[in-house]
Every structure is written in structure tokens, then in C-alpha cells.
DNA sequence: TTGTAGGCGTTATCAC
DNA sequence: GTGATAACGCCTACAA
């Protein structure tokens, strides 16, 4: 493990000169620069991160928080972010929160201790007021989440319009008895809350009301997010006397579970029950009835936030700090 | 940011006493210990990693390398490892290699610079001889890969037997014209190589030979690993004059792609073409014909390697350094 | 049992 | 343009 003074010694200069060159600061003669560059490669030298961190220098590293990396939506998102970060020569560390505030705080602590220059939050567990305090230690970007703060770098899709379009599509096709699934624990909707799920619910309501319909409490399913959850949803639907004629799954995972279980229970999709997915993941093409779903531009979202964060880190002026990506319905076969 | 000397000052003791308490070393009076504990919580103090790293102390962090986090097999594996590491109070950082040697080396460099105490490699890109050199800086565990070195901590599934069982199952059901898919670039099989793919191929051959069959070069597909790859495989099969009657997909992803494309091309599974998956992921239950596949105990594998690594880090003596998990065929509907 | 002092590798400040 | 030197926060001999 060569150190900076090893390099200095070999190049016949002082450590400060080497340091200047490493961090390409001015006031260095080309001659010595060459000498040092030579010594560095000869020794295979690279600066020790830990020492830099102690000095409070940058780490060229970005942390990304996600709830669960096993959720394909997030693994794709992380992959996109990491790919772009890589191009900009930033390293990436992935932090799973498992929906726990403490894990999220761990990631934020990285900022405090200079382990990372920025954190991109693809899920938010703690109150924003708490999180915001960490921005004195480094940059915080928000991705796929909502924060009512015009200063933060934020990229997300237009969930309201997306869900509105999806619901409208079902309505236009003649469906009237719509079931609604959400990943959240309970539908705590109110007009003041700005978050992904409320936004989706808002879009759902807007479409419904255009048809003078009200949401049915009976047909609302909360806390569903996996394939297995989808299977359970369909079982409950199948056992109802008054069944919905369509179900808004909230994710392709859930939609896939619903369709698979429908198949085993011999319930015909879309004839007896239409299923609308969300995300448009590869999965949506391989289920028994390929999913009509709402396409999310995951890679564009990831690229955008990563580039914005990198820009800000490099001191570039950023014109728009918040970008909202459009969502659109992809028609396949799970809706008639 | 409270430092150790802030704590010392507040507690009215010296920094060394605080340090001893933090690292629960002997020779501390309970009275002072209480004082210090008090001061620590009052200040919200936590030791700065960077400073510890510079001293060469442990980081309580384990790096995990995977080729692509978007591959559900690996995201599940990582999740299992992280969960167990978390229980043992180790932090985890995920490093994607993207199949590139340089990215893998990055993870290994973490060892050198004390950023992590251990790295668990779930994919191996570089030569083992090169990798092994890094074990002077920290612990290296191997997961889901093969290394001919009795000293290394290693956990993987018995791919040979798994593939043998799967192939045998097809053979026993009367299939004789077996196609074979693999994720590797080309089938460079030889008896000396010990790796996951060779091992699988070995199992495939063993079963074939029991039926006096030879592998068909015509029906071997290399470099296939995604759903889209699977779709392409089916297209090629569909266009053949002499078609296989069964295909060993190598992964559930590929199997799902094959089945989806078969559906659009109106080719009946399993009547006209049987499909055997590998992994037994949730996906395998939602395709048009639920997959007959080979179950991999992903969580057990992840738990095992994480526990072994944690044990070794904590100086426990380890009885068996290599564990091989059994694989078994799960019968569903993609094979008649 | 406790405290003091030195050093880990780097960068920034100050002289020259 | 260049080079000493003092921090950064922590741990560990060594001394008391």
C-alpha cells in the first residue's frame, strides 16, 4: 500500500506537490507533474479514501436507498442510476431500508461522515424535516417520491395522470366495477398529502368521478405488493358474491399473481375479470394474459436523477430542479 | 459531530478510557463506564468510520459482489445475505460487476483500504490467483461459485446433481431430443474446469449418457440469460426443420421467455415442446404454463455464507469451510 | 485502572 | 512554484 509520501519520495518532490497534482490544483510545473505521474503508476498508488474522508474531502460516491432490492422496479431503477453514475465516474452504494426508518438514517449518516457525497432516496421513510437536516452535510436527491420542497433535486413520474389514464381506459372499455390495489398499509388519502400513493389515488378518483362513480370500499385492497399478495387478492375476489369486473393491480407483480391464481381457479381473464398492471416490467409479457399496464420510464428516471445529482456535485448550475416524467397505457391482453 | 474527546470531556475521563469502553476492552471501572455511556448518548456520539479505517480497525461491513442486481436470482441472494448480516450487526454494500474484471477489483480494493472486513463474491470475473492475493487484507468468501481451494469459505448448490436430476426427469418422461441453454458465451467444457456452468453441463452429459445419447450441437444455445433471450431461443427453435422436443432453459427467466413466445407462435407447451426451468423463482408460478424447474435454496445459501463469514470474522472456529446444498426438481406443468 | 502521546494518509495553510 | 507542518478522529503502546 503505497502512500502519498512514497510517491513524493520516488518522484523527488514534496507531498504537497503530489497532492496538488492528484487534485489537479494550479501551481505545478509540467516537469514535476510528469515525474509524479510516473511515480504514481510505478507504485500503483491510489489515495486512501478513509484519509480523505477524515479531511472532509469528497468520496466520489453516491448512496442510493431503496425499500427492497428484490422488487424488480427498484433493482431496475438502481441499475439505471448506477450505470449513469458510473459514466460520470461516481461509485454507487445501495442501501436497502426494508421500510425501516433506522436503515434510512444509516444512509443519511454516510453523508455526515463523508462516506458519500450524495444520497439519492428512492423511498422515504422518515419525515422530510428530519431528512432535510442532513443536507447540510451533503446533497440529497429524491427519486420516485414526492417532497414539497422546490429546492430539492427530484425526479418522478406523473403518477396521478398515469393512474387517471389507466382508470379512464378501463372505464372507456365499459368496466364500471373497479377494484383498487395499493402497496400502502391503509388508504390514508387526503388532498394535502403529496406522495406517490395519494397521487395515484387522486388520479383514480378523478377518472371515476368523470363517470359519476364512487370508489367501493369493499373492493379496495391494501398492503399488496408481491406476486403472492396478488394471488391472495384474487382468492378474495373469487369468493365475493358481488365481484368487481376489473382490478387495478398497482404493480405488474400483483397483476401477475392475480392472473396466475385466476388461471388455477378457472376464472377467465379478461372476460370475467380485467386486470390492469403498473410499471410495464419484462414480467408483464410472460404471464398467461400479457398485461395491459402503465409504462414507467424507469431508465429515464434513473438517468435523470443521477445526472442531476452529478451536475450539482460538480457545481454546474441546474435549470430545472424537478422533473416529472409522463406515464402511458400499454395495451396488451389482460383488459378486453 | 461529537468526537471521542467531546465525550471524554463531558464524562470527565480521558479519551483512552472512552475508547476502551467503545471497544469493550477490559480494565474499566463500572463507575466510569456508566459516566461515559451517559455522555455518549447525551451527545449522540458514534465513532467516525473513516478514522477507524485509517487506524486499520474493522468496519463491520461486508461487500457482496454480483454480476447484475437486476437478475432476480442475485437480488434474492443479496437480500438473504444482507438480512443475515444485519442480524449479526454487519453492514452490507452491494457491488455490481457488470461482468467486468475492473468492477470486481474495486470491491477487492475495499478490503485493502479497510472499507470492508470481508467480501462475499457471488460471481467471479478475475483469475482466482489474482483474487486470492487480496485475502491478506481481509476475508474472502465465495457464494454460488466454484473455487478449487479447500481453505476458502464457500457455499454453493450442487449444480451437477441438479442438472443431472432435471435432465434425467425429462429423459424418464420420454423426451429424447433435448435442447440446452446456458448463460455463458460459449460452451468451453472440459473435465478439469470447476465452475457452475461446467458442473451443470457435466450433470447434463451424465444423464444423457445413461440413455446412450450425445448432446446435439445444433440444439445448444449460448449466451442466453434474460426473458428476451428466451424469446429469441424459441423463435430459432420454431424455425427448425428438426426440432427438439424439450428445452433445458438454464433459468426461469429464459424459460418464461420461451413459453411466452411459444404462446404467441401458437406452439403448444408441453405437448410440442417441454420446458425445464432452473432456480424456482416466484416468476415460475405466473407464466402461462407454470414451470417445472429445479429449485435452488437461495435463502439458505445466502444465510449460510453470511453466517460463515461472520463466524470467521469473529474468530470462531469453523468446522466445515465448504457447504454444498442439494437441488431438486419441482414438478409443475411445463413438462408433460 | 487510568492518562498521555504518537501516528495512521491526506489536504490546507502558510512560509519561502 | 514548492515545501514544511498542522490538523482531521481514532486507537494503542507506554507510562503512571
Overall pLDDT of chain A, averaged?
93
C-alpha end-to-end distance of chain A: 65 Å
The oligomeric status of these chains comes to: homodimer
Q: Mind telling me the CATH class of the domain at 159-296 in chain A?
A: Alpha Beta
The backbone outline of chain A, from C-alpha atoms, is elongated
Number of strands of chain A: 12
Radius of gyration of chain A: 25 Å
If strands are numbered along the chain, what order do they take across the biggest sheet of chain A? Answer: 2-1-3-4-5-11
- Given helix and strand content, the structural type of chain A is alpha/beta
CATH architecture of the domain at 159-296 in chain A: 3-Layer(aba) Sandwich
Determine the CATH superfamily of the domain at 159-296 in chain A: Response regulator
Number of helices of chain A: 12
CATH topology-level fold name of the domain at 159-296 in chain A: Rossmann fold
What is the succession of H and E elements of chain A?
Answer: HHHHEHEHEHEEHEHEHEHEEHEE
Major beta sheet of chain A, specifics?
Answer: 6 strands, parallel
Q: Give start-end ranges of low-pLDDT stretches of chain A.
A: none
Largest interface: A-B, 41 and 41 residues
Helix content of chain A: 40-55%
Portion of residues in beta strands of chain A equals 5-15%
Amino acid at each position: 500500500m503505497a502512500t502519498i509520501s512514497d510517491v513524493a519520495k520516488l518522484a523527488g518532490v514534496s507531498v504537497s506537490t503530489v497532492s496538488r497534482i492528484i487534485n489537479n490544483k494550479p501551481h505545478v510545473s509540467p516537469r514535476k507533474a510528469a515525474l509524479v505521474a510516473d511515480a504514481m503508476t510505478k507504485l500503483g498508488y491510489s489515495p486512501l479514501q478513509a484519509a480523505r474522508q477524515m479531511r472532509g474531502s469528497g468520496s466520489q460516491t453516491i448512496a442510493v436507498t431503496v425499500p427492497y432490492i428484490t422488487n424488480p422496479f427498484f433493482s431496475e431503477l438502481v441499475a439505471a442510476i448506477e450505470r449513469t453514475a458510473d459514466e460520470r465516474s461516481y461509485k454507487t452504494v445501495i442501501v436497502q431500508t426494508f421500510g425501516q426508518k433506522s436503515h434510512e438514517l444509516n444512509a443519511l449518516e454516510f453523508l455526515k461522515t463523508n462516506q458519500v457525497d450524495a444520497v439519492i432516496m428512492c423511498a422515504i421513510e422518515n419525515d422530510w424535516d428530519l431528512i432535510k437536516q442532513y443536507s447540510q452535510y451533503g446533497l440529497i436527491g429524491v427519486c420516485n417520491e414526492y417532497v414539497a420542497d422546490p429546492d430539492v433535486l427530484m425526479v418522478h413520474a406523473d403518477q396521478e395522470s398515469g393512474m387517471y389514464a389507466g382508470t379512464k381506459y378501463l372505464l372507456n372499455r365499459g368496466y364500471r366495477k373497479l377494484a383498487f390495489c395499493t402497496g400502502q398499509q391503509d388508504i390514508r388519502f387526503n388532498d394535502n398529502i403529496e406522495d406517490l400513493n395519494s397521487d395515484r389515488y387522486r388520479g383514480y378518483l378523478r377518472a371515476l368521478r368523470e363517470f359519476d362513480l364512487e370508489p367501493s370500499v369493499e373492493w379496495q385492497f391494501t398492503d399488496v405488493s408481491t406476486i403472492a399478495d396478488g394471488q391472495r387478492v384474487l382468492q378474495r375476489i373469487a369468493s365475493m358474491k358481488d365481484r368487481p369486473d376489473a382490478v387495478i393491480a398497482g404493480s405488474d407483480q400483483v397483476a401477475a399473481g392475480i392472473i396466475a391464481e385466476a388461471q388455477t381457479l378457472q376464472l377467465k381473464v379478461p372476460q370475467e375479470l380485467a386486470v390492469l398492471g403498473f410499471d410495464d416490467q419484462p414480467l408483464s409479457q410472460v404471464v398467461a394474459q400479457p398485461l395491459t399496464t402503465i409504462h414507467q420510464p424507469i431508465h429515464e428516471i434513473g438517468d435523470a436523477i443521477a445526472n442531476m445529482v452529478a451536475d450539482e456535485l460538480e457545481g454546474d448550475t441546474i435549470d430545472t430542479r424537478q422533473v416529472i416524467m409522463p406515464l402511458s397505457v400499454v395495451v396488451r391482453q389482460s383488459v378486453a
